[in-house]
TrEMBL record:
It comes from Heliorestis acidaminivorans. SMART domains: FRG. It holds the Pfam family FRG. This is FRG domain-containing protein. It comes from the Bacteria. Residues 102-229 form the FRG domain.
Length: 422
């Protein structure tokens, strides 16, 4: 493969496996360090293309003047090319109104060892239980924790103002990025980010990210390798089109169209957009290992590569910047382990459930369940967290004069709903 790296750009918006065959399946493709360098190079070109399109969009440029004799074709180019690649473009999605980051040509997920299943954190936990009732009760508690996290966010004027002035606050996706169990699986369109997660690890004791060491990677056959899951942007668009239209020709086709990649975009705190965050909202278990629309790219670990990527991402600071919520992680940790919830949190979780139909019976089952060990689930008037007035004011002062355009270097744009195909 290394010998073909100079022609990488011919493949980057396609599937790498097509170097071998036109058939796309779930086999693992081994890539070299030269291939990784080529991926990084192509990622930089991709980013520059998006920056150029964004500048042109902000300057008021469009494609209509290029070919006035075919305005319909130019309109499609505007909607399908310019809008997605313009940073700050506002769009409505099934999961909310999103201020998009510029859409690059590929999506990735990086993992620092070989796992049997790549699924969201909530699904991994639910798989520990055998009984359906236990799974549903745990899911209910997980959703209550997410709801409490959302209510915690809306304690701040900064977040309230964001929801009023800019876009929806996607607190479920944010909860995933801050360590709560959700049914969201993180995806990125920045290869740098994916490679960081594939070559580094989080030290829980020191609460910091570090590069993998040789001692760590040589423990088992699975730890010797990092994994990159890759899907081209055009495939994501095709899946979304068919999913939204409901055009599944067979049950197998329907299965292959489950894993939609959804944008998270710019959110009140920086972690999501610094990671160029996208996500798969996986309602039913469908591991990436079984999803043939994603390629499986495996590479051999080395300390040199891990250290290089670690430094390239400023020791993780380019992915985990210091922002307002960092100083409140103790509260978020409390919410993650909480067993006391408000009625509002219960209503949120109950309304999401397709299993429970009687609120009184549901509360009784929660109170009597033994799956939460020594924790008794309490639903009442108290939040599981305490936020002092001083800490609330401190965060709001940090963002008192916040401007999304100034802080994130973007211009909010949208295409008028009345604009029709010429």
């Amino acid at each position: 493969m290394a010998a073909q790296s100079d022609t990488w750009s011919e493949y980057m918006s396609e599937y790498i496996s097509r170097r071998y065959t036109d058939k796309l399946d779930n086999r693992i493709i081994d890539i070299t360090y030269e291939d990784i360098k080529a991926l990084l190079h192509e990622n930089e070109k991709d980013a520059k293309e998006c920056e150029a399109v964004t500048r042109d969009s902000y300057a008021g440029k469009n494609f209509y003047s290029d070919n006035p004799s075919n305005l319909r074709f130019e309109f499609y180019k505007e909607v399908l090319y310019r809008d997605p690649k313009t940073s700050g473009f506002i769009m409505q999605y099934p999961h909310g109104v999103v201020i998009r980051q510029a859409e690059r040509n590929n999506y990735y997920r990086g993992e620092n060892q070989i796992f049997s299943k790549s699924v969201p954190s909530l699904i991994r936990t639910l798989n520990q239980y055998n009984r359906e009732i236990d799974k549903e009760l745990y899911k209910l508690v997980a959703d209550m924790r997410i709801a409490e996290f959302g209510m915690f966010l809306f304690e701040f004027d900064f977040v309230k103002n964001w929801a009023t002035r800019y876009s929806d606050v996607l607190f479920e996706a944010l909860a995933q990025h801050y360590g709560l169990e959700t049914n969201w699986l993180d995806i990125t369109n920045d290869f740098n980010v994916a490679l960081f997660f594939a070559t580094c690890y989080y030290d829980g004791e020191e609460k910091s990210w570090k590069p993998l060491t040789k001692e760590m990677t040589e423990k088992t056959e699975g730890t010797k390798y990092g994994m990159i899951f890759h899907i081209p942007q055009w495939q994501v668009s095709t899946q979304s089109m068919f999913n939204n239209a409901g055009q599944h020709s067979s049950n197998e086709d329907a299965k292959n169209l489950i894993n939609d990649v959804l944008p998270i975009g710019f959110q009140p705190f920086m972690r999501c957009h610094m990671q160029h965050g996208y996500g798969i909202k996986m309602t039913d278990e469908f591991p990436l290992q079984e999803d043939s629309t994603f390629e499986k790219l495996r590479f051999r670990h080395s300390e040199k590569l891990s250290k290089e990527i670690y430094e390239r991402m400023d020791q993780g600071r380019l992915i985990y910047p210091h922002e307002g919520l960092i100083d409140l992680m103790d509260i978020i940790e409390t919410i993650k382990e909480s067993s006391t919830f408000t009625e509002d949190a219960f209503d949120y979780a109950f309304d999401k459930s397709t299993y429970f139909t009687d609120k009184t019976k549901c509360k009784k089952l929660l109170a009597e369940s033994i799956i939460f060990e020594d924790k008794k689930i309490i639903i009442g008037n108290s939040h599981p967290f305490h936020l002092s007035r001083q800490r609330r004011r401190r965060l709001d002062r940090m963002y008192k004069d916040f401007s999304i355009e100034k802080e994130y270097g973007i211009k909010l744009t949208t295409r008028p709903s009345g604009e029709l195909i010429p």
